[in-house]
Every structure is written in C-alpha cells, then in structure tokens.
Amino acid sequence: MTITRQVIVHEGPGGTFESMAVLDDRASAPRPGILLFPNVLGTKEADFAYAEKLAALGYTVLVADVFGQGKRTTRADADFGRYMAELNADRELLRERVHTVHAVLKSLDEVDADRTAAIGFCFGGKCVLDLARSGADIAGGVSFHGVYDAPPFENARITAKLLVCHGWDDPIAPPEATVALATELTEAGCDWQIHAYGHTGHAFTDHDANMPDMGLAYNHAADQRSFRAMTDFLGEIF
Q1: How far apart are alpha carbons 46 and 62 in whole angstroms?
Q2: Which residue in 38, 49, 142, 159 is deepest, having the highest Cβ count within 10 Å?
Q3: Does residue 84 register a pLDDT over 80?
Q4: What would the DSSP string read from start to end of the chain?
Q5: Strand partners of residue 193
C-alpha cells in the first residue's frame, strides 16, 4: 500500500479551487470516494493526514476546497472566519460549491462514482449537511462538531444516511439547535443518527484547538469514539 497525495486544481462557482486527492495508488480498482470538508480554516495538513487514515481503510478521499485557491487562514489571524462568513451569508453559493466538488470527486479515475460519501468538521459539517439537503446522490454523510442551521430556502428530499457526532456542551450547537436538526431530518424522511458526547465542546477532533474559554478544545475520548462510529457507518453504507 502506498498512500499518495495529488493536488487537484479545478474551476467552480466564483473562481479557481485547489483540493487534494489522497489515495492508495496501488489499488487495483476504483474505490468508494469520500469528500472531506475542512473546518473554518480551509484545507491544511491536519486534513490531509486525516484523509490518509481513511485512504488506508480502502477509500479514495478528496479534501475539498470550497473557499478558493489561496484562501486559507489560521487561528492566529484576527479574522480567521472571513471566508466561512462569506458562504454563511450565501447558502446558495455554498450549495453550488459543494455540488461542484462532489462532481470533481466522482470524476477521479480512482473513485467508484456510484459509491460516494462526505465527512466534515465544524463548518465542514455544515457542508456535509447542505450537500445532503440538496438531494445529492451521496450514500451517506458524517458531521463532526458541525453547524446545524438550515438554509433559508426549501431543500430537496434527503436520500443520504446521516451520522452526526456532537459534543453536548458545544456552544456553537446548543441543545435546542441539535433538537431542531433532528426535527428537520425526521421531517425530511432522512435515515439519521446523532451521537452526543458528554462533557465535550466544539472542535473535539482538533488537536490544535485550545480555546476552552470559547468552548473549543480537543477531547481524546470523543475523537476516538467518533472515529469508530464513522468507520462503522462507512462500512454500513458501502
């Protein structure tokens, strides 16, 4: 097994984008494809490393750029959420971009285009949910410490199965937001499940998250439990 990274530059709504394919280049046949939507900061080394773990399990992964080529931030930036804010303010554009990058994933020779899924972290969790809300033909989606507010327009019927891995003490997604998401998914006829982890806040999979005063902190137990839940879920849908 040889896990490799391939930069994928592609066009999309609003400009040029730079995603990263992560795959086993010795695979003898196309594999199920997984979109990985990063958090508020955009694509980065932590996402590529996570994608390598998935590739080692037998998937071809595309770490998806939805902000645009060169549009990346760090938590040291005064306005590290500026690119996310642009898409939060234009959910139709966000929907177009997640659809575009899903098409890019399916176009890869190493991907079985009939078997795709999406996972996402923080804002990336919103990307997963909005992709499913649009009626995209993904088999399933996993949101890790995501953001749950629905778009301000009618959604399509959700055909994807969804797993939501949630920190119960997440200030960005308090209990009422989580219940609202469950209600929305139930009304949409979605096959959904929510795994809530006690004494756990936002960004619980992020080793670099260290803002406990804002409710952001890595949680080893929740990280490990959610990874196992994801792998079981992917095994089920594929």
Answers
A1: 14
A2: 142
A3: yes
A4: --EEEEEEEEEETTEEEEEEEEEETT-SS-EEEEEEE--TT-S-HHHHHHHHHHHHTT-EEEE---S-TT----TTSTTTTHHHHHHHT-HHHHHHHHHHHHHHHHHSTTEEEEEEEEEEETHHHHHHHHHHHTT---SEEEEES---PPPSSPPPPP-SEEEEEEETT-SSS-HHHHHHHHHHHHHTT--EEEEEETT--BTTT-TT-EEGGGTEE--HHHHHHHHHHHHHHHHHH-
A5: 163
Domains of the chain, each with CATH number or no CATH: 3-237 (3.40.50.1820)
Give the pLDDT score at 76. 84
Please, what sign has the CA dihedral across residues 60, 63, 66, 68?
A: negative
pTM of the predicted model, to two decimals?
0.97
Residue linked to tokens 């009626």? 135
Which pLDDT score is estimated for 50? 97
Residues 188 and 167 sit within 8 Å (Cβ to Cβ)? no
Instruction: Report CA-CA distances (Å) from 5 to 8, 45, 198.
Output: 9, 11, 36
